[in-house]
Amino acid sequence: xxxxxxxxxxxxxxxxxxxxGDTENLYFxxxxxxDIPDLLYGRFPVxxxxxxxxxxxxxxxxxxxxxxxxxxxxxxxxxKIVAVGGKLCSIISNDASIGEFITSMGDGVCILSHAIVxxxxxxxxxxxxxxxxxxxxxxxxxxxxxxxxxxxxxxxATIGDCTEIxxxxxxxxxxxxxxxxxxxAGAVVTKNVADRTTVVGVPAHPIGFKVPICTMVPIFxxxxxxxxxxxxxxIFPTLSxxxxxxxxxxx
Length: 251
What we know:
The protein is of the alpha/beta class. It folds into 2 domains: 2-89, Rossmann fold (3-Layer(aba) Sandwich), CATH 3.40.50; 92-209, UDP N-Acetylglucosamine Acyltransferase, domain 1, CATH 2.160.10. The chain contains 5 helices and 25 strands. The protein has helices spanning 9-20, 50-59, 71-83, 213-216, 222-235; strands spanning 2-4, 27-29, 39-40, 44-47, 63-66, 87-88, 91-92, 97-98, 104-105, 110-111, 116-117, 122-123, 128-129, 134-135, 140-141, 146-147, 152-153, 158-159, 164-165, 170-171, 176-177, 182-183, 188-189, 197-200, 205-209. The protein has an 8-stranded mixed beta sheet, covered by helices on one side. The protein has a 6-stranded mixed beta sheet with strand order 3-4-2-1-5-6, with helices on both faces. The chain has a 6-stranded parallel beta sheet with strand order 8-11-14-17-20-23, with no helix packed on it. A hairpin with a 3-residue loop joins strand 3 and strand 4. The radius of gyration is 17 Å and the shape is globular.
């Protein structure tokens, strides 16, 4: 397997795989950070170009997992890597509690330690469920979301695609948060949130709106994506910094 990204969340996924006893034939891919060594921690090879990644998929397993925290980045990288021969796969911590009666879980879902997912829950492709997250009965979480540590998505709540939920935020029962939204850390969401809205506070209130990055420009490299994110925050200065791929909240 290749973990996409050798910093932040990539290291968290390495920890999960280590605790699961599953680090054999593990690689990383990072074409952005020049200071990443060729062998991470002296053990794990790092692929540093798209050509090397494509060749790896031809010669070895095509499996990869997303080790980046930003929702928009997760979606765009997954699509590009599948196009060069990769197969999106899940990483689920043995220390997470997953209910026996879960309805569905898509490809490429990452669930970190001490997360709790109960029954009749739907989780879309490529979504990140970070440490100590709670997702209660009949909740629905869309594709390529990023749910930060300690967040709570309570019964019958719905989260749209490519939405980011900040650390220790709470989505109350039956509330719908739309697609491409940002919920700030510690927010308590008591009412429905429209698509492309940033909300913060207790109770949560909107502070800005955004154009989804995946619809703004064609993305051909991670560097271009990060620049697009920076440009979006400049155009829409009220946006939360939660969408920053280098933000600790994304780890």
